[in-house]
TrEMBL record:
Keywords: Bacterial flagellum biogenesis, Cell projection, Cilium, Flagellum, Periplasm, Signal. The keyword Protease does not apply. PANTHER family: FLAGELLA BASAL BODY P-RING FORMATION PROTEIN FLGA. It is found in: Periplasm. It comes from Vibrio porteresiae DSM 19223. Residues 125-187 form the SAF domain. Its main location: periplasm. The keyword Signal applies. This is Flagella basal body P-ring formation protein FlgA. Residues 1-39 form the signal peptide. Belongs to the FlgA family. Gene3D superfamilies: 2.30.30.760, Antifreeze-like/N-acetylneuraminic acid synthase C-terminal domain (3.90.1210.10). Involved in the assembly process of the P-ring formation. It may associate with FlgF on the rod constituting a structure essential for the P-ring assembly or may act as a modulator protein for the P-ring assembly. It holds the Pfam family ChapFlgA_N.
Length: 247
């Protein structure tokens, strides 16, 4: 009887070992498939990224003549996502085209899931750049400038969108080849130089000479001394070496 019980115990031990060896892999596989059944496929991830990119391209504020590129960040392949039966919906709290990143919310309403996708922006705008090295005091001509596409996110200073806006201006500092011409680089009216003061009223125009008391670019208001009366007046730069006042 004792021998029989020992044999039965031995058989049960072998059975438990066999079941443990057999069921552990099956349990792992069941767990694996239950966890991964709703993980996003590579195709779904691509669709989510494309939806986020199109949202940014369609909604980001863009200056006239600019070009925008959008690149969605990588998405964790373990993220929960199904094959949405409807077109994905997108939204974002920012439309700032000069931001480095815009976070887009991509949602599938029928299957009740959503994913936040950061999208990197590259915004380039046409700006006047030096087509040859320029030196201080040099007058800008159409031969030494050109229009180039410049990354606005890397260039924060005030530039010019057309060559006509800077032609004839004088440089206040050296400018290297390829550099953007900025408002701080030039003057249409330069300090201590003689300017033509044009005073206009309805049906009447008077001109006289004066001395600029500061540098100015087109459309900027500066102080000018009337050489004839020695009065200091406020005048708007209207051209190369010319200012205008209203009376």
């Amino acid at each position: 009887m004792l021998i029989k019980k020992r044999n039965q115990s031995h058989v049960r031990s072998k059975c438990r070992a066999f079941c443990k060896k057999f069921y552990n892999p099956i349990g792992f596989l069941l767990l694996f498939f239950s966890v991964n059944v709703h993980c996003a496929t590579p195709e779904q991830i691509k669709l989510i990224q494309e939806a986020a990119e199109h949202h940014v391209l369609d909604t980001a504020d863009k200056p006239v003549g600019s070009e925008v590129e959008a690149q969605a960040s990588d998405i964790d392949p373990r993220v929960y996502a199904t094959q949405c039966p409807e077109p994905l919906k997108t939204s974002s709290s920012s439309h700032n085209g000069s931001a480095s990143y815009i976070t887009v919310l991509v949602t599938c309403e029928p299957d009740d899931w959503k994913i936040y996708v950061p999208v990197k922006l590259t915004l380039t705008v046409p700006l006047v750049t030096a087509s040859s090295p320029l030196t201080r005091g040099q007058v800008i001509t159409s031969q030494n400038i050109s229009i180039s596409m410049v990354n606005l996110l890397l260039f924060k200073r005030q530039g010019f969108s057309s060559t006509e806006m800077v032609e004839g201006a004088k440089l206040k500092r050296n400018v290297s080849l390829g550099d953007v011409i900025t408002a701080n680089d030039i003057c249409f009216v330069c300090r201590n130089e003689t300017v033509m003061i044009r005073a206009q009223s309805a049906g009447m125009s008077i001109t006289t000479k004066g001395t600029a008391l500061s540098d100015g670019i087109l459309g900027e208001q500066i102080k000018v001394k009337n050489d004839k009366s020695n009065r200091i007046i406020d005048a708007k730069v209207s051209g190369i070496g010319e200012v205008m006042v209203q009376f």
